[in-house]
Amino acid sequence: MPHTVYASFWKRFVAFVIDNILAAIPASLICIPLLLWQGSAFSNAPQEEQALHVGAMFLIYILWQLLGAVSMWLYYAFLESSPRQATFGKQLMKIKVISKQGQRISFARASGRFFAKILSYLTLYVGFFMAGLTNRKRALHDYIAETYVVAADFEPGEDLPDTPAHPIWLSVIAAVLFMSFLFFMVLGVIAQQPAGLALQAAAQLQVMAEQPDLGYGTFPVGGMIFSHQSDGYRASFEDADGGEYTLYLPQNGANICCEDYPGFSCEATGFEECE
Fold first, then answer.
1. Fewer CB within 10 A of the end CB, N or C, for the chain?
2. Residue of higher predicted confidence among 45 and 63
């Protein structure tokens, strides 16, 4: 039996994209209209009622994630344990999932295989890349569930031959992904420092100032409190250490400044103190 008995990494990748889109549809059809409904209610509600709609949208988002997870699980588990042994994406790519004996897997094993993908995500997707670089082209969740992904015409009893492994390339990919993860972690830390938060706040103040029909009031956005008053626009925020800062943009003004708070230096924000 030639080594092409196993599904290639790219066939598995295309099937993965197709399947995730299809599996996400049921939860999206339920929750997106609910979010739009609450978003419309929020925009038309009095200020004292807006917090209720924000809370409702948050609960709908949580429901969306839960329904999405259940939908994904049932989609993969039922289809991979079905007589076709494949999801719709895998069927399009003409590949299927088998046990180490070459047989159809049970619903329980298909469920275990699905939940084992959590480890493939936690390894920064290295568990998925293993499907193109390991012996017999197995991803991490295939090793855990003792499964293989093969061509759709594979028959039970046929050999499952060894294939060349590429541990060096797998190590390189793992190292690159890990360094990228560290890089974005550092960016995230920087973004939570006063200067990073101040830049985000300043950008939003400029956006607010460019909206001539913006009414007076307070607008919470992304953990910051923005306000429009008769004298101008303000953005208040806290850094990771509890430091409190407020940026001020005068009405029809061009320069943003920092309003002084006792114990907290405007110098940390990179903006000059308001006169």
1. C
2. 63
Q: Which helix (H) or strand (E) holds 245?
A: strand 244-250
- Any domain includes 148: yes
- Tokens for 151, please give them: 């061509």
Distance (Å, rounded) from C-alpha 42 to C-alpha 275?
A: 37
What range defines the domain where residue 243 resides? 194-269
Residue with tokens 């460019």: 210
What's the gap between Cα 78 and its chain centre? 25
Structure-token pair, residue 272:
């000059």
Residue 275 lies in a domain: no
Cβ contacts of 36 within 8 Å, gap of 6 or more = none
* Paired strand residues for 217: 228
Amino acid in position 27: A
Q: Read off the pLDDT of residues 207-218 as tens digits, 9 standing for 90 and up.
A: 888 887 777 888
244 contact partners, CB below 8 Å, separation of at least 6: 236, 237, 238, 261, 264
Does residue 274 fall inside a structural domain?
no
Region class of 137: left (phi > 0), else alpha (psi between -120 and 50), else beta: left
